[in-house]
Write the structure tokens for this entry.
Amino acid sequence: MSTGTTLRVGNLMTADPVVVDQDAPIADAEMLLRSYRISGLPVVEDGTLIGVISQTDILNARSSELIGSNWNRVRVRHLM
């Protein structure tokens, strides 16, 4: 069904997105995803977008025995 309206990415984008720094603990990213009920976070370095981390990335990492056992030392940059 077409309403005659063109949908553009800009119509769906957030002007001030929730982001996470690449050096943040992965637990911080996990908390942001849960708190804001979002499935992915842009990862930034000095305000510049350098990647994305998703709930799936975190779930997969948590299921790894090696990564999960070192969770407190894992940074966002390790998983994005």
